Amino acid sequence: MYKRLFFSLFMLILFISGCATIPTGENIATYSIGGVTYYPLVTLCDLRGVGIQYDALLRTAYLSRDAQQVSLRVGDNLVLVNNNALHLNSPIDVYQGTIAVPRQFKEQVFDALFKRAVLAGRRAGTGKIKLNKVVIDAGHGGNDPGAIGKNGLKEKDVNLDIAKRLSSLLRAEGVQTVLTRSTDKFIPLSTRVNIANKSGAALFISIHSNANRSRSLSGFEVYYVASSVSDSKRAVLTARSTALNLKDANFASNSQDLKTIVWDMIYTNSRAESIELSHSLCKVMNSSIDANILGVKNARFQVLKGITMPGILIEVGFVSNLNEERLLKTAGYREKLAVGILEGIRDYSQDMALVEVALR
């Protein structure tokens, strides 16, 4: 268990990414560092099926696919391409915790070696979903309509319909589901958190629809709990109030300090798993819906701060955008979104490293 936890800590550093700033042809978030456009290396590798290994001691990433090999070191302008040296005008950098590569590297090295047409990797839709239970949270409800589109579409209705569709799809594959609400009813955030934590579920999926004063904004995005939310502080509070029952684990001591340390590790592991799930969803949606993929972001959403398992909040689209409001009104598009979420969960579950916790 601890080996998987420490692996997830590493993946947290490797996979965390910031907000999209500049749209690209593959809907990849880009960053401006010193006036130079940079790309998140992990996202590039994910989209092209490129294997990546990272040596934290040497701060060096090794990329490979087929017979092609590239190594690059954070802070250096020199990269090795099939053992041949190439000097970049800008160094490999780190942005918000993720390795970032300059445009020159993407265009002259990555795009040349790892072409999109020969994308490798696991195909969505294959393999059993390796989860026993999932909590699905339809945002808003009852006297809280959420966002309302120009033509009257209410967020609460979109959220609930997609949640129920996703539940049906998961159940058809043998995965148990728990809906925080199954009708047009207002459920406080604290109640949603309690439902999730007492469910014994492996994942928490909260479904929402977005809105913005600028009606031109549109797209699909996924949030995980912000790193500014202290795992240590959450661990102290949880250790005081909640029994700790890890599957296949025995504790020789009931020490409060020991419980706090374990909860701290669980929360850190959960955030790392949430990030991986977020990336899986965006990758699937990038090829399954005709919409902007705004990427993976983090936020201090109360519902994500309170849950004890990996969890994400999905913004399926902007009801404030006339085109997306029109799409979100249709059963066909809602079904497409539900299927996409299902496939993202499937893709993620093949390589997950969850810690199972049963709460009393």
Question: Which characteristics define this entry?
Answer:
single chain, 360 residues, alpha+beta, Copper Amine Oxidase, Chain A, domain 1, Aminopeptidase, six-stranded mixed beta sheet, five-stranded antiparallel beta sheet, 10 helices, 38% helix, globular, disordered N terminus
Short description:
The strands form 4 sheets. This protein has a 6-stranded mixed beta sheet, with helices on both faces. It has a 5-stranded antiparallel beta sheet with strand order 3-4-5-6-7, with helices on one face. It contains 10 helices and 17 strands. By secondary structure, it is α+β, with helices and mostly antiparallel strands.
Describe this structure in words.
The chain is an alpha+beta fold. It folds into two domains: 23-118, Copper Amine Oxidase, Chain A, domain 1, CATH 3.30.457; 133-358, 3-Layer(aba) Sandwich (Aminopeptidase), CATH 3.40.630.40. It has ten helices and 17 strands. The chain has helices at 2-15, 41-48, 103-113, 155-172, 189-197, 231-241, 256-288, 302-306, 322-328, 331-349; strands at residues 31-33, 36-40, 51-55, 60-65, 68-73, 78-81, 84-87, 93-95, 98-102, 133-138, 176-179, 203-210, 220-225, 245-246, 293-299, 311-318, 357-358. Mean pLDDT is 81; it is low at 1-25 and 117-124.
